[in-house]
Amino acid sequence: MNVERVLFKSTDGLKLVGELNIPDQPWAAAVLAHPHPQYGGSMKSIVISALFAALPAAGVAALRFNFRGVEGSEGQFEDGRGERHDIVGAIDVLHPITEGLPFVLAGWSFGADTSLSVVDERLTAWFAVAPPLRRDGGYAAATDTRPKLVAVPEHDQFRSPSSAKPILSSWTNTDVEIVKGADHFLVGRTDKAVELFLDFAKKVDEAS
């Protein structure tokens, strides 16, 4: 992989660390947001690592990064509020390199919740894996007309499909996929997250 370490700033001025992989002829781009920092989450977490390895190999430019306070990134945990500035800072890095391509904001767990709280005109779509859906104040993406795919593990310990579906049913342009045989951590099922992302991104590309 042509992985490049990147240093960039959140939109509120914190220095963050990340990794960038741009394939030779990308057809889409993705920013990848990791799970909860206070429970060991980082850009090297299992689902984010699986996506970061597979997407560039499939032609998708990818940027993963550490939220504030995590492994080399400045600042401290802010329960998803400040972390939104981190995501927009990551978009600032990747978008100019991939302008004109479908641009997906993707996250897992806390990263999914936080991503769904970010609305930016440069985004084409959202891809959320196992969001706990517990964000105070709701989700900005819920009423946005751009497409969203939410992957809910069949045996998720924090937000079961039966409790996720009533919440997501009122969201605009949102599809829900149940990941069979998986729990919140997707051990042994990260390939399904990759498959869902690529299928979704291709549909977004065809529609754009």
Low-pLDDT ranges? none
Instruction: Sketch the topology as an H/E string, one letter per element.
Output: EEEHEHEHEEHEH
Envelope shape: globular
Q: Structural class, from secondary structure content?
A: alpha/beta
Proportion of strand residues: 25-35%
**Name of the level-1 CATH class:** Alpha Beta
Number of domains: 1
CATH architecture: 3-Layer(aba) Sandwich
Q: What oligomeric state do the depicted chains represent?
A: single chain
N-to-C CA distance: 28 Å
Number of helical regions: 5
Largest sheet: 8 strands, mixed
Nearest-integer average pLDDT:
97
Helix content: 25-40%
Radius of gyration: 15 Å
* Strand line-up across the major sheet: 1-2-4-3-5-6-7-8
CATH fold-level topology = Rossmann fold
What is the strand tally? 8
Instruction: Output the CATH homologous superfamily.
Output: Alpha/Beta hydrolase fold, catalytic domain
